[in-house]
Each structure stands twice: as C-alpha cells, then as structure tokens.
Amino acid sequence: MLNFSGEALSYGRTTVLSDVDFTLRPGERVVLLGRSGAGKSTLLNAAYARMAESFPDIALIPQEHGLVPQLSVFHNVYMGRLDAHGAAYNLANLVWPFRAERRAIAPVLETVGLDGFARATVETLSGGQKQRTALARAIHRGGRVLIGDEPVSAVDERHAAALIDELGRRFGTILLALHDVALARRIATRLVGIRAGRIFFDRPTADVSDGDIHDLYRA
Fold first, then answer.
1. How much of the chain exceeds pLDDT 70, in percent?
2. pLDDT lower than 70: segments of the chain
C-alpha cells in the first residue's frame, strides 16, 4: 500500500527524515515511536499524502484535530463523509440535520463517550472532548486505512485503551504515532522507532525489547 525507499522527507524546506525505508502492507497495524520532534508527524503526513492518491477511503486523525470550532460536534463528525454526498445535500444538512444522519452519528458519539454532545459547539469542549470528536469523525468516515497522530493523547489511560481497541476493530490497516509505549504494544503488529531524523528500528512488536525502547528515548 505504501513504500518509501531511501527517501528524504521534509517539513517545508527543512529535511526532517533521511534515508527513509518504510513500507505499509494491508492488514498491518504500525505504530511510530520516538521523542517529540523526531519526525513522526513528518512521516505520517508524507504517508497520508502519498496514499490518498490511490486510496481515497483513508480516515485521518491529525494531531491538532482539524475541527471547525464554531460548528457542532454532530457537524464535525458528519464532515468525515462530506465526499459521500453532493454540495446541495451537505448544505441542507448543515442548516437542518437530517434524521438519517443524526441516527448514523449517534452510536459513534456513544462509542467515544460523547453521548449527549451532538449539539454542543466544538469551541465549548475540553481538550479531551475535542480529541474524541476527531476520533468520532474518523470512525464515522471508516475506510480501509486509518492514519492518526497521537489520537488519544488527551484521554485518560482507561478510556485511551478502550478507544485504541475500538480503532483496531474498525480499521483493517492502521498507521499511528503514539507517545504511550504500552498502548503502542497493545495495538501494533509492528513498531517503528524514530530517532534523530532516522528510523532507529523497524520490527515486529514482539521483537522490540524494553532495552530497545530505552535506547530510543535516551538523551
């Protein structure tokens, strides 16, 4: 589905990652690990840009959520499927949400712990609630692939694990960046460590030791 071979990946004009050899195959659940600024987001963004050309049914959870603050939770979640309808339908649903759309989104909101928040505007939500809204939008969109940048960082530990499990059930192929190693081990079939602008390790989860993790994060 995705292949980088010896490539340099940039943020703007700055090269962030060098000599990138990375693949993503159907059915894999790959988690990127590494210190802040190591280049995880750069790899995710490059992966999304390249895969979207061939796989339009990709769900994305960006690190900054990508929500419209002035709109309701319902409308932000609905936007996950904007491309499923024409402009006239989308505009009408913006003015007066259709019952069928409300019914489709209600169970998704319940899944992420936002039952009863459909009419709340995003700007009134806490950080964790905004993140759950972004999760709900991705779940509502569905598709073969999920790409997510720290999708549960603002959620408490117990609910974060439940949400990660839910993403694993919903999507066949997953590429995430996570800061929580336990959550990474929980969902990943493969772990990729990024350090100092390069891929430090890329192995099946069972083959990554605690020592490998320590070396990845050491100063």
1. 100
2. none
Give the span between the Cα atoms of 76 and 39, in whole angstroms.
28
* Separation of first and last alpha carbons in the chain: 34
Q: Which residue has the tokens 């549960």?
A: 152
**CA separation for the pair 82, 90 (Å, rounded):** 7
CATH 3.40.50.300 domain range(s) in the chain: 1-57+143-219
d(CA 69, CA 122): 5
CA angle 140, 141, 143 (to 5 degrees): 125
Out of 3.90.470.20, 3.40.50.300, 3.30.240.20, 3.30.300.20, select the CATH number for domain 1-57+143-219. Answer: 3.40.50.300
pLDDT of residue 207: 98
pLDDT at residue number 55: 84
Write down the pLDDT at residue 57. Answer: 86
Q: Please report the pLDDT score of residue 66 as a whole number.
A: 93
Kind of pairing, strands 190-195 and 173-177? unpaired
| 43: Cα separation from own chain's centroid | 13
Q: Are strands 198-204 and 190-195 parallel, antiparallel or unpaired?
A: antiparallel
Q: What's the confidence (pLDDT) of residue 13?
A: 85
pLDDT of amino acid 35: 93
Residues contacting 37, CB < 8 A, separation 6+: none
| Nearest by Cα to 9 from 49, 19, 54, 55 | 19
* The pLDDT of residue 69: 97
- Tokens of residue 56, six digits: 């339009």
